[in-house]
Amino acid sequence: MAIERVKEYFRERGIEGRIREYDTSSATVELAAQAAGCEPARIAKTLSFHGDGEVVLVVAAGDARIDNQKYKARFGCKAKMLAFEEVEPAIGHAVGGVCPFAVNEGVSVYLDESLRRFETVFPACGSDNSAIELSIPELEDLSRACGWVNVCKLREA
Asked: What is the pLDDT of residues 72-128, one digit of tens each?
């Protein structure tokens, strides 16, 4: 189970106890925000894309969405998300629990600038009912991100 991989990853770093496992689903931004007791924007959603011969994960704020022009300018290809059935084999986490931790080899993780406006955010932990509250520097370190990108736009209020 993917959450076990994430627990082991965090156990090695001494923070496994910070993982929150909920009695309800946290598989969508809205459900995750309800479970975590925070605004939806602070949910750090992980989006999965086909890259140039690799899988690209973009971790973005819950109220952000991919801007196709920005994505193409940054990655040199159209933003094409992985199909449902491709996600778990490619990343190591199933839809609803995709996160930037303990991912398969060859998966590149990027953090979107939309996250920088928060002190802490809540990414999933490999299951559809888990999360962890992390500071932005912790997220940057623990995700082993390749870097920061600006490929999203915020939803209109």
From this structure: 999 999 999 999 999 999 999 999 999 999 999 999 999 999 999 999 999 999 999
Which whole-number Å values give the CA distances from 45 to 11, 12, 52, 53, 93, in the listed order?
22, 24, 22, 23, 13
**Rounded to a whole number, what is the largest CA-CA distance in the chain?**
41
pTM attached to this predicted model:
0.95
Write the secondary structure of 1-24 as one string of H (helix), E (strand) and C (coil): CHHHHHHHHHHCCCCHHHCEECCC
How many C-alpha atoms does 123 have within 13 Å on its Cβ side?
26
Domains and CATH numbers, the chain: 2-154 (3.90.960.10)
What is the distance between the alpha carbons of residues 75 and 147, in angstroms, rounded to a whole number?
13
The DSSP secondary-structure symbol of 152 reads E
